[in-house]
Amino acid sequence: MKNRIIDVQNVKITISKEELDDYICITDIAKVKSNSSRAADVVRNWLRNRGTLEYLSVWEQIYNPAFKVFESEHFKKQAGLLTFTPSVSEWIQKTNAVGLYVKRGKYGGTYAHKDVAFEFASAISPVFKLYLIKEFQRLKEEENNARQIEWNAKRFLSKSNYLIQTDAVKNYILPQRDFKKDSKWIAYAEEADIVNVALFGFTAKAWREKNPELAKKNNVRDFATINELTVISNLETHNAQMIREGKKKEERFEVLKEIAEYQLNILNTAEQIKMIEICDNDLTSSEALCLRDSFPI
């Protein structure tokens, strides 16, 4: 999910995953110092402080090439004046800042990059800041563990079910073949490709030819989604059973293709499954998936 909630000393803090990084709702943090109706005023008063503006300006110059330094100087010159009551939206609009943003509607409020949010928490309560950092780190550890579990699940599904299929090939197909004209590895590769083509629409060889560098350390299934690997698991089990039943490859392929289309559609459209999926945003995987779309069958 894009938004996560952590509980810091009985205060619910919303965290939003944005393109740049994690952003924390500082309007929620402000509730430590004031009630919900006045939380926005706490944020506004914090922005009036020259020290705050100095910190924000330096942060933006480090991480935001489009930041308008000259415009930020106008804010700093007015810091401390009674008539100076800047809004977050005004700061963003005039300086092109990215460290803060304002969100409307559900989970609305002012959000700050985690570096900025921790600085805001220091101004509110140094003790609360420590608890905030602790809970934030706990959240990130849970997310990292979840990603590791997903990766392990992918590899387990891929490897364990491939063993089921190759065992069926060895026991029910290889004995009927002419070993002078064929070999075990060819038979295994052909059976794997029945599943690959049924699901992906291309063979492992086609993928390797398109991705020679990736193929040195990876195979096509390393870049499949958890939904695709779940379907692969089912396809390999079905394929092994059909092999035992003596069905020809052509017949098995048609059956597997229908199963793949149906099951993948169910998984991709089920809202509950979508909510527990963890998206792979790493560039390498994205590039591989884009390349996959152009593979020949």
What features would you describe in this structure?
It is built from 13 helices and five strands. The chain is α+β, with helices and mostly antiparallel strands and 297 residues long. It has two domains: 3-124, no CATH class; 147-292, no CATH class. The chain has a five-stranded antiparallel beta sheet with strand order 1-2-3-5-4. Helix 6 (114-124) packs antiparallel against helix 7 (126-172) and helix 8 (184-199) crosses helix 11. The longest helix has 47 residues, at 126-172. Pfam families: KilA-N. It comes from Blautia hansenii (Ruminococcus hansenii).
Notable characteristics:
297 residues, alpha+beta, 2 domains, five-stranded antiparallel beta sheet, 13 helices, 5 strands, 62% helix, disordered C terminus, KilA/APSES_HTH
Main sheet strand line-up:
1-2-3-5-4
Q: What general form does the structure show?
A: elongated
Question: How do the SSEs run, as a string of H and E?
Answer: EEEHHHHHEEHHHHHHHH
- The tally of structural domains comes to 2
Strand content: 5-15%
Percent helix, as a range, is 55-70%
| Oligomer classification | single chain
Tell me, rounded to a whole number, the average pLDDT. 78
InterPro entries: KilA/APSES_HTH (IPR018004), KilA_N (IPR017880)
Pfam family, one: KilA-N
Organism: Blautia hansenii
Protein name: KilA-N domain-containing protein
